[in-house]
Structures are given as structure tokens and as C-alpha cells.
Amino acid sequence: MEAILAAMRAAQGVEGISEGNASDDETRDDATTTPAGEAGRHRAMQTVCAEFAASAGAWLGGRWYQHFESWLYSRRGGDADADAFPRGEDAERDAVLARKLRASGASDGEATRICRRLAKASENARRAAASAEASTRFNAKANRVRRREFEVGGDKGVRKVELSCGKVKLEVNARHYAGLRRRFEGRADDEAFHRAAFCLLARYACLQGTHYKAGNMQAAVPTGVLDVLRGKFGVRCEMFASPLNAYLEEYCSAVPATDRQFGSLGSAFDYEPEEGSFECNPPFDEEFISRLAGHLERLLAKNSKKPLSFCVIVPKWLESRGWKRMAKSVYCTSNTSLEAKEHAFISGAQHSRVDQMTASAAATSVIFLQNRAGERKWPVTADAIDMIRAAFSPIKSHTPRDVEKWDPDAPLGLGTNTRRLPAGSKSWVYASKRQSPADETVETPAKKKKKSKKVANGAISADFFRD
């Protein structure tokens, strides 16, 4: 038994666990992921990304990766935890993607076939990731994480840290790396921290689809907005954050399995406060927002005596169920519109980019949901709304922490200093399958004067991902 526990400690990064003291160790429940397992998950998600680009990208254009991220969120149906892969076929949740494909010229039959191919690719990738995790869980060598520092951008560049496990390399800005180190509960052990940090980076990359330009589904609010909410409304907790972008000390996040070691309170949908003031900036997905609306109304109805207040920041989607439910709620005490280009957000992938602020291309709603006790304690005044507007303003009024130069083609994202997926990414998943869900050949773009090549058995060459 002791030998097995030792192997688990080495693979998972959990120190000091033995048969006698396991019940007293604070980190035992958090060590549910391993670097090798998350690396396998990352590689598997890349194959789904490649399948989406090959089948839907031709219809959706150069920003297909945004549609891919949106599809992932929609198919998960408000549940970002678990394994990040959508499961099975779901015509209802594929409706948005199918509509986009038809609007781009695809026939009904073609749109349906594409959705089915994506569902099959996702399921195969999920199984391959699970198999890879099981086969490496107790392999200490496979779970070793390496670290290196480097700088991009010359004299005015940004310092970055690369964490790698096997062939998967992930980058994080040095500032965010330092923030993770500060939040990490097992501060004494650098090796354990690097294992936990790699798992975190890999999982969030998977949730966004692994493409280095992804991250727009959950842009963060400027820190100045959180300062206003903390000062005027007593906000102490962000209900939709992550260890990578949380500004306040208390926060909920999407993936407790990787986040609890960095202080996360767990999923917002499992969080049941009886009183207090909270900020909610959910992913820009209708299912998430609708689910959040129901959760907040239930909390407010359940706790009528103690002051409870939620500041909800969501896209102004007038026809969506979630937006209408909050805007028309009996608990809605204020509904403010921020017009397009007059406010800005921070990239959802800020931890790996050198940007941060980006002007919003669409209108946003700032909705306050409060019970009567909360309304009395934290009244929404015109002055407070003006301060929120000012804190949301693009670029000029913000500090260097919020606004940095960004080269969208800087190194990052898929784990290498490149703009493409690794060669043979699909073949990694389908190598053991008798039949591939995408047996057709895929033609890669021409590189310089060389002729383009076709790769069989579903594999896509590295040149596939040039923009």
C-alpha cells in the first residue's frame, strides 16, 4: 500500500500522504489530475480543433476558432468541469453552429454531417484522453514538468514562463505565473507547484479549444470595475473567475479539480452564499447565462432576510432567455447598458498574451439583482453607475496592469512558438482505431513554392494552421 501511495504522490504532486495521515492532508481531494493526463487531454482536444478547422473552417472563415470555442461552450451546456469534451450528438445544442454553417452557404445536409463528424471526433478524443491519463497516472517520469523563462518583444517585451510535460509546452506571462505561485496552497514545494500549474494551464487551454487566439468566450472585466464594486457595493468575491485572472482574493471557478489548490471556492453553481455582495461575469454563452439567472433567483428567494446582492455583467442579448429573465426579475434593481466600443474587456487568455484591454464590439448589460436587505445596504446610485462606466472605458483611464501592447501572432497557445497545430495531431487519437471518423485526405496549404501535400488517415500536417 505504501508503495502505491508513493507512486501516487510522485505522479500527482501530493506530498506527505500515507495510509495513516491521508485523512488529514488538505490537498488530497484536489490532486485529481496529473500533468501527463492533462497533456494527453490537451493533445486530444487539438485533434477536435483540427477536425473543426477541416470540416467547418472552410465555411466559417478566418475566425473559425472563435466559432469552435463557442461550439464547445454551447455543447457543454453550462458545465465546464469534467473532461472538457462535448459528448455524443445533440441536435438542439448544435443548432447555433448549424445555423452559422447554413448562413455561410452550407446545405442542411452538409451542416448536419459536419455536426455529426464533430460529435464523433469529440467522443473519440475524450476516450483517447481518458486512456492516456489512465496509462500514465502512476508514471513519475511521464508526469515530470520542466520550466524555462524567456522574453518576447525585445527591450520592451514581456517576460514569459514555459511549462512543459512531454511534448506539450504551455506559456504563461511571468506576472500571472507569480500570481499563481502566490495563490498556491503548497508554497514550499516548487515541483508540486509546477505540476499543479501545468495541469491548470492545460485544462483552461482545452476549455478554450487550444487555439492560441481563443479566449473571447470569457473576457474579464477591468480591475478598475472590481475596485468600484468593492468600494461602493462591498463586493468580495468573483463568481466566474479562475486562478489565472482572479483579482479579488475570493473567487469561484470552472474547474475545481485543477483550481482548488490555488484557492478556488469551486463552481459558482455549487456556491450557496446566504449573504454578501458578489460580481458575476459568466462566459458569453446563452446556456451559462440562463443557468446563472435561475441560480441567482433561487438564492435571492431562499435568503430574504440577510443582505444579498449580485452585480451581473453579460452581453446585451435582448432575445436570450437568461438576459430576459434577469432584466425582468423582481430582484432587478438596476439594468445599465454599456454601448459597443464605449467600454472594454480584458482578454480571456490574458495569462498567455501580451495584450490586455480590447474594446467591446457589442453592447453589454450591467444588471444588479438584490433582495430588499441587499438593496438597502448597497443602493445602486447614479454616481455609482457613472463610476462603473468610467472604469469600463477603453484604455485611456487604465493602468499598465490592464493595458499592454499585444501582438496576436506572438508565441503562445498551442504549446509551441508557432501558428499551427503540431504535425500528426489527429493521428495521435486515431492511431489505434481501425477506422477514422475522418478518413478522407486533407490538403494542406502550399508552403512557398513547394507543392501541397495530402496526409492520410485523418492526420493534418503542421502547415494546416496558417491564417
Automatic annotation (TrEMBL):
GO molecular function annotations of the record: mRNA (2'-O-methyladenosine-N6-)-methyltransferase activity; RNA polymerase II C-terminal domain binding
InterPro entries: PCIF1-like, PCIF1_WW
Region Disordered: start-end pairs: 15-42, 399-467
Source species, domain of life: Eukaryota
Annotated Basic and acidic residues bias: 399-408
Stretches assigned to the PCIF1 WW domain: 188-348
Pfam families, per database record: PCIF1_WW
Name this protein carries in UniProt: Phosphorylated CTD interacting factor 1, WW domain
Lineage start: Eukaryota, Viridiplantae, Chlorophyta, Mamiellophyceae, Mamiellales
